[in-house]
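FORM 7B: Structural annotation worksheet

SECTION A. Query
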Amino acid sequence: MIHIIGSGLLGLSIGYELLRQGLNVKILSSNLDGESSNAAVGMLAPQIEFKSTEEKLFSLMLESKNLWNNFYNKLTKDSGIDCEFQRNGSLAIATNNDDMEKLKFKAKFLSQFGYEIKFLDGRETILLEPNLSSNLKGSIYFKNNDQVNAQILKKSLIKAFVKNGGKIEEKIRIKKITLQKKKIKLLSSEKCFECNKVVLAAGVWSRELLLESFGISIPMRPLKGVTMEFYHSDKENNFNHNLWFRNIYIAPRLNGNIVVGATEDEVGFKQEINMQDMFYLINNLWPLIPSSEKYAFKNFKCGLRPTTFDGLPVIGSIDKITKNLICAFGHYRNGVLLSPLTAKIVSEIIVNNKENYNSLSPNRFKFS
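SECTION B. Predicted structure
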């Protein structure tokens, strides 16, 4: 049986794929409050999320986005739960001249990859999104930069995983991993699990577990992200696209709500939502929506994004430990988008013993 440490979107996606490959899988769930997927907005927007210095990551994002349609169809069929995969596209919007220059730089970079970029002026942007403030310089429309409801996605994955024979053991916090001959032992405060292979998908807590177990330190840190959700009594008074601005983004849900996010704070493992978090999001949102007083607050959510120092996720085994422990963490703010590809890569490692993505291997950190 394969054991997976971590029950976030990545752990569940990997478990679901391994079950589809005919393997027995058990997920050990610690139910930690700071899990990044708890606060994930669910943007599937590779062309907008990329930075010009991250071409390797951009390539991964595009590859995973191409897997999303099949992933969604299979998951919905297996679970019976629609995770609201919206093919609504995105608008990257400029509110001033500086923003417009940044959009031009992004467009120039993307043109190298064969993307045809269409700029919209302020009037054209408002025609597409009449509920935005009219004080806009313009925008770029990105087709196939979509969204999914991450919280419903998790419910769908759990249902499909269990329905296909997967087992989930709740409230298990693995504190140490040990090796004994050809077996791996996973130790919690109350139990010991023995397995042949284990996938470590515990997000920001993966680094501490490797350090405690083997003295190996992955250069990764948590970044706190906060999202807010609002509802409007008139569901027609909503938005048609995912909206990206300099400091925030807005995801319109099918039920008429909007989710706002984009904060990043380096505060260690602290998960409190403070006044600064609230002020930042509301202060940046308020000038963009003339009818903002009609939106009522629904909730705040906080998650800790596992962030590596080179920006790439960590997927693969560590030569210094064992080929039977496979890492799958460090996805920063791209965990939802990269879930199908990560599941595919880990499945290839376990089923076919193939590690084809060397740039993602934890061995790139060259442990002493």
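SECTION C. Observations
The first strand starts at residue 2 and ends at 5. The mean pLDDT is 93.

SECTION D. Sign-off
Analyst initials: ____
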